[in-house]
């Protein structure tokens, strides 16, 4: 089986290539079969491979397809390295990807650019797989930029609207800023280790760098730079809410489940560097904590269904960063997986709603959909519960609780980070259920045109089940103590031990988390269902309005960057449109012309002047010859 | 001899194309196509018949030497190594494209047009092949005049101005190089009485630091203007935007590369110490070029001018890499020369396609073409992505290698150069946005690419992908010549190291030397 | 003649030369310009004679005869040209004949 | 005079006889064609007679002449150029109203003067040669009486030439006065012993420079050039630009080499200033000029400046460079004026830039030839002009005259602009189909077209394969030891 590893990314690439070349000439069914099928077979291979992996329990599978290039000892390959970490990722990518592809065949059915959509989606899946399977950082970088490209293409999928194009470019450029940092990190790594092979770096790094070495910190921070760009974390988070301009399946696949977690993958993959650079790791934790709060507040204020989900994604990835930052590697990855399920589910539900409401995304114009779309309601509710981490029954509870727990009890934990996490959990359940109440309860404001069909609901149901049950593979110590996931991760990522003093009272903290989450639901119920007037009275105060505006605009980051970077750059560029340096050369030319005019005055045509010229010359020559 | 034939075929083909206009108006095109194709096949044959492994010891594959003006020590020396071979392949490939894209675009004086086209190519071929400095200057200038005509006769509205500017800039800088060549000639001659322009012999000239510096600046003048490096770039946007498509493609794809080639071939090995001294400044110029070009590109509204400024930006990488003096950077530079030749050439070709259909280059007049011409859109997308350095395409390998190399030489400048990649994203995406996505203010009918145009575009896409995914054949071909150019620097380094560890290694060396002497005996 | 007379004679030639030169400069009438040039030529001739007599050689006088011949030829062509100009412009003012310039 | 003297002076004698024969024929039977043939034949004969003198060592005809390989080469150059010019003249004069026959007599006489100049070793012969050249030129310049500016040009040239001759003569007189000899050898011998040059002698040299400078049309004695070039008939302009300058330059080189003037920094300074001023003024004056003949006039001023750079190198390589450059420059200039002559019509010469608009479309071959000539003037490879300029630069770099060399480079760039301007005008696409101008029978142009073709081919040949010419020139100087730097 491991000889077929290369097929996993190759199939989506092949599908994409075929769709690019022949897409316009194929029927819709053929396109759908090609697009969904390629990812489906990939998913199948992944599952088989995963089963083999679980039964054989090798350290990793490795396959080199070909040597990419080789220059003076720099020989990156197109080679795949499959260990537990990447297996989890490729499972999520192919499986969730397959469901979303399936869903898309219905969602995009009426779009005239059907083949293009699937070409881009397949390309994305291929690139994303390459990213997580790469055995060296350069190949990872290839996937990294490749998913960026697909993200750009899909955000701007409906290109005729200039705003979509703007959002697409914003996404690409801002992530590129992060990529630049990462590229510099790669330069340093290459300079230090003479290779970009991940495993080599991971084994050699502790020998070359001692803990806290400046270089290690620098590399850690630069990699973090790449990660925050891709994962929509502070300070490069501004592109993600705008990225919702793309079709909803795109948001589900790229901007919720997979691509945006590439940063998490990168940090987890390079954990040795961060182990060697505590400062960088702390920075990861702080970025995560701050981001999850800021994004949570912003999510509270949004009206656009997808934007709420977008901010929520930023916030949840913040949790993952927080986990990585405190050294709870496995917990971070676990949350990634769970999050992929429930966030994809939420987005797909949102997509179903949007489709049913003629592309209406404003929650204020929704309501009462519970009866109209029961399947969507129930699945959405499950997803929301998981996101809000309702205790015991949802998988979100287990993953988030694990993070919160290690944030406090882990060796690098801190009370401040824990408080931030708790606050975030509260806000999360508030905005989640705000969403639920606004959309599904109350009176019906927009008529549902056509309820979603089977192709749409089947993925929803599958994802809903996953959102409920997948948490059970990793249960807390005091709660049946299942550690399948962290056991799987153990060979790849270091484990974490909780503070023994606190560990005794773990149940107390679980209770706090449960209460917080339920409290959030209650608050949402209070404001949005029971007595909206209460909310209105608070909202009408001028301070609250200002705060609302501030949060609504994503804490003013867009305006800040606009004024700080974009406007000056565009201004400068337009100012110098005609190239100031050029005027230097035109000046030279004009000077020569001026001299010409001056000189041609002497050619007056008058004979006497010519005589005078000769006389002057004679005098000059005689003077020189007499003086020298 | 095959080298001479390459040049002769082009020149003779040019004359024939000119004359054949009288017999049949289409004949010049076919003759030109045939001539370039023949050369391309010859070059490919040379490439395939010399596998990388045999390149080992001496980088030179083929050499030809005929006395020309023996009184001055001028010889007609043509020599081919991996670097030249790659450049030739690029030249003839782009040459074929240039003939093909002119098929419909050029309507007047087709005979003379193809004469000029082929002679430009011949001049460029000569530049890439000759190893005699006199001859080098000769070809250097020979390629300019036909180019001048290409711009001046078949260019767009403001062609005269652009043609003048191009000609004056390049000539002025070329003359400075001539001075430097002469200076080198006399210094070398006065040292050992052997007055010659032979590159191989001049390589061994020992120069006083002051003289080396001056002579290096002479050479640099020509190459930096041609490359071009800010602040000597101002001829480029005019020339590129006013030239006919074939002219722009040749300018961007080949002429700029002669500057880079000159840096590699002449400046590096001839003046090893002076270049090391100048390296930080040169790299600074490169970075300034990367960023300045990118900013200017962003603000342009004329599509061809925009692409022209991207060239300024991309060529910044070349000088950055050249002056990093290591194999990574130089391989990057070679890759950049090829990849940029293809990608920017392709962008100009697309601009040409659009101009043919719309008769405007103003991107304000364009928009929404994806719906009308999806094939063109996809191809444009590929090359826009190449121009912003997307991995998987040739430009990425080039830029990454260059940056990896330059990082070893200078961290801060590399950081700024890397930031240039972000700016590249900004201007590149602007092209896609304005031309293919955003709806246009006025609606034009627009035909998608026809078979001939696809025949031009598809090979370029394939090539740029190939370069991005499996560049090894190219890198292997270039390696021996790059090591040759770097030899002087490695010796310098070795010298420095030797000073440090001279005592420890004294014994070892003496053993090595005796070994060397032993090997010498049979010779 | 002793040396000082030689130099005085040379000085005379020089003065003559200068006079001719100045009058070429200040005269506008073409004929007068031609005459002034002739004066300069004759000054040169005089200088030759002085030099010849200084070195007691016939060469100076030979040169003088050459100069005379040449001057005659020149004047003849010159007068013909001046006649032409007068026909065309109805004036002998040299400043008038300044159509070509720039 | 002995019989051998006659043999050595054969070219001069042939020219003299030809002039006389022409006069007699004109008196008897005016016929353009016959005179033309006699002239051409006499040039060819004179040229062929030089082959007898190949590879001779210097033969002195005391005290006036010395016939050495240098002189022979220059005479050959002059004769060849005159022949080419006379070839171009036929069609040009055929369409004029004036009597054409005397033109050829004057042409022969002028050529004779120039030939005399280059073999002179004495002030007397110098003066004679110069004046024969000049007086014939006065008439040649204003030969087309009917044309507007011909007599203005003539009178300007006459007054100024006589004026500068006066300087030359007075300078000679002063030199003679101070040294007591007028032969170059004598002068050289007399001044080698002097530690410093006496004042009178320096003044004399200075005044001679004025005279020579005028003929060479270097700044500040250049002002007549554009007016005379414009006013004179195109073939005569070609003659002034080439033959008359070759003669004067030849004598200048001979004189300087003989007395080794390069020892005196004063003289070098003067020539350096003159050279730089000529380059700059010539090019700047031409920059925006719209009259092609005036452009060529100004360009000739700057080219003389370039030549002086090689001259100032003051060694054998410099003189070789000058000689090579002269050959290249003559081919080019005669070609350029040949084109002008070809395009001229009965009324006026084709001198305005307008006349050349879209020439490529009307007369592609002529345009191509003219383009080649202009590129050669600009010093672009594949043409003789490039090799010439290269030679000069090499001479300059060799002697490390960085100031001059950098001025040369700077000016070459300025110069490019106006050469290219003409080319650009010729290559412009025509707006409307131009009416063809009335022309004579094609057969009349046969000589002109042939000459132009030959010149263009020569231009390219020398540009591509200069080795033969270089070899020839180097041979001259290896067999003339006087010219090896002292």
From TrEMBL, chain A:
NADH:quinone oxidoreductase/Mrp antiporter transmembrane domain segment(s): 134-428
UniProt xrefs under InterPro entries: NADHpl_OxRdtase_5_subgr, ND/Mrp_TM, NU5C-like, Proton_antipo_N
Listed GO CC annotations: endomembrane system; membrane
Membrane topology category: Multi-pass membrane protein
Transmembrane segments: 6-24, 31-54, 78-102, 138-159, 180-202, 208-229, 250-274, 280-301, 308-330, 336-355, 375-395, 415-434, 455-473, 508-528, 607-627
UniProt subcellular location: Endomembrane system; Membrane
Protein's recorded name: NADH-quinone oxidoreductase subunit L
Phylogenetic placement of the source organism: Bacteria, Pseudomonadati, Bacteroidota, Cytophagia, Cytophagales
From TrEMBL, chain B:
GO biological process, any: ATP synthesis coupled electron transport
A single MF term (Gene Ontology): NADH dehydrogenase activity
InterPro entries: NADH_Q_OxRdtase_chainM/4, NADH_UbQ_OxRdtase, ND/Mrp_TM
One Pfam assignment: Proton_antipo_M
Protein name: NADH-quinone oxidoreductase subunit M
Topology of the protein relative to the lipid bilayer: Multi-pass membrane protein
Similarity remark: Belongs to the complex I subunit 4 family.
Alphabetical UniProt keywords: Membrane, Oxidoreductase, Transmembrane, Transmembrane helix
TrEMBL record, chain D:
Keywords: Cell membrane, Membrane, NAD, Quinone, Translocase, Transmembrane, Transmembrane helix, Transport
GO molecular function: NADH dehydrogenase (quinone) (non-electrogenic) activity; NADH dehydrogenase (ubiquinone) activity; quinone binding
EC number: 7.1.1.-
The organism's place on the tree of life at top rank: Bacteria
Main EC class the enzyme belongs to: translocase
Lipid bilayer topology: Multi-pass membrane protein
Predominant location: membrane
UniProt catalytic activity: a quinone + NADH + 5 H(+)(in) = a quinol + NAD(+) + 4 H(+)(out)
A Gene Ontology term for the protein's cellular component: endomembrane system
Domain NADH:quinone oxidoreductase/Mrp antiporter transmembrane span(s) in chain numbering: 120-414
Function: NDH-1 shuttles electrons from NADH, via FMN and iron-sulfur (Fe-S) centers, to quinones in the respiratory chain. The immediate electron acceptor for the enzyme in this species is believed to be a menaquinone. Couples the redox reaction to proton translocation (for every two electrons transferred, four hydrogen ions are translocated across the cytoplasmic membrane), and thus conserves the redox energy in a proton gradient.
Protein name in UniProt: NADH-quinone oxidoreductase subunit N
Top-level taxonomy: Bacteria, Pseudomonadati, Bacteroidota, Cytophagia, Cytophagales
Gene from which the chain derives: nuoN
